[in-house]
Design brief:
It is a single chain. By secondary structure, this protein is α+β, with helices and mostly antiparallel strands. Helix content is 29%, strand content 33%. It is built from one helix and two strands; from the N terminus they run αββ. The protein has a two-stranded antiparallel ribbon with strand order 1-2. The longest helix has 12 residues.
Length: 42
C-alpha cells in the first residue's frame, strides 16, 4: 500500500468520520499509558 500524503490522509479521516457523531480520542501519556476520552463531532 502506498503512503498517503497529508491532504489524502485528512480526506480519508473526514470520509471515515462523515456519518459518525461520537468518537474516542486516545493519547499516549509520558509514562506509556493510554488515556481515552469520548468526543462529540460537530
Amino acid at each position: 500500500m502506498a503512503e498517503l500524503s497529508r491532504a489524502e490522509s485528512i480526506y480519508k479521516v473526514r470520509e471515515l468520520l462523515q456519518d459518525t457523531r461520537i468518537c474516542m480520542l486516545t493519547t499516549l501519556q509520558q509514562d506509556g499509558t493510554l488515556h481515552s476520552r469520548p468526543m462529540a463531532l460537530q
